[in-house]
Amino acid sequence: MKIKNVRTRVFEWKGKIVPPARNFCTNAADLLFERGDNMGSFRFHGWLVCEIETEDGTVGIGNAALAPRVTKSAIDEYYAALVIGEDPFDTEYIWQKMYRRTHAWGRKGIGMTAMSAIDIAIWDLMGKEVGKPVFKLLGGRTKDKIRCYASKLYGQPLDALAREAQSYVDQGFQSVKMRFGWGPQDGPEGMKKNLELVRTVRDVIGPDRDLMCECYMGWTFEYAKRMLRLLEPFNIRWLEEPVIADDIEGYKELRKLGVLPISGGEHEFTLAGFQQLVDQRAVDVIQYDTNRVGGLTAARKINALAEAYSIPIIPHAGQMHNYHLTMSTLASPMAEFFPVHDVEVGNELFYYIFKGDPQPENGFLQLDDDLPGLGIELSDEYLKDFNIIE
Ligand SMILES: [Mg+2]
């Protein structure tokens, strides 16, 4: 059984969007002096879909969200030819072939994102060929159901924030994640506003639910150090990506302070990248993104690494490939869940392009033991709202 065809398409959203708001979420571009739309680098309203077909007509579906037009070119121009003619069950060899043949430029960033999309499609394909869900190929069921946390609560007026937090309590979530709106450029007043956001959510969810806080790389080491002390009374389960992904030393030093657990890895690539994070004891929680890290083939190796070091894995983003990984390892105690919502930052597009993602009940997700592959399909419900680039 050989791979016969690789098809890529970019789905660009042209439907209704929620207009961008100020102080919605800190991000790595906040330190630049340009003002204007400071959320520009954070939003992504396009998604790459990669379909891989074997000689018998079985199609596996992969995807990637990072710079989809460029990622599409990388697959079309380079990676597709490396994959066509291979047996999809030789996943390790295919991965190494893609990795080594493009090593000069592909080992991080766009190249690894393209590889991730292909790898996800290959795992879906393998599941469909043998009639098993992907998690059964990765190690099988390790939990009765998957605990998940509601991940949204962007910066907004405090009354609206409180209402949103209450809605997650009402839906039965035991854990929620919120975003900060202010960073180093905003001085002590911004710090106060950040604390008001946290206080508002903590007051609504009470002391017995987990609260996680996301900086999305929008802070500096010095700012984060000051904020950590101020956040200590709120019993934060983890502070996420306080500094940019390359500042591993910053993660390590913040963690050493022992004030709050520090999480990261959403913008790191491959087993090699996570080996550095783990070796340096830089994070308390590993949050790889399967869409970037090198697909499921790389992610399962990072699961093994994390297990060896007793570091929990909680992958970035809700989405089927992450749920299958979470289900298949004890090293992963929980999944991120993005509530279904009008199109805003772009995470939501997944629900408009695909169908089949499970919805939580009382804060837990379930995977079907008998549904082959990843269990998602392309949806045609919203096709009119997309510009599709072949
Ligand atoms: Mg994050």
From TrEMBL:
Protein known as: L-rhamnonate dehydratase
Pfam families on file: MR_MLE_C, MR_MLE_N
Alphabetical list of Gene3D superfamilies matching this protein: Enolase-like C-terminal domain, Enolase-like, N-terminal domain
Cofactor(s) required for function per UniProt: Mg(2+)
Organism superkingdom: Bacteria
The organism of origin for this protein: Ancylobacter crimeensis
Entry-linked InterPro entries: Enolase-like_C_sf (IPR036849), Enolase-like_N (IPR029017), Enolase_C-like (IPR029065), L-lyxonate_dehydratase (IPR034619), L-Rhamnon_dehydrat (IPR023444), Mandelate_racemase_C (IPR013342), Mandelate_racemase_N_dom (IPR013341), RHMD-like (IPR046945)
Keywords: Magnesium, Metal-binding
Domain Mandelate racemase/muconate lactonizing enzyme C-terminal: 158-261
PANTHER family xref list: ENOLASE SUPERFAMILY, MANDELATE RACEMASE (PTHR13794), MITOCHONDRIAL ENOLASE SUPERFAMILY MEMBER 1 (PTHR13794:SF58)
CDD domains named in the record: MR_like_2
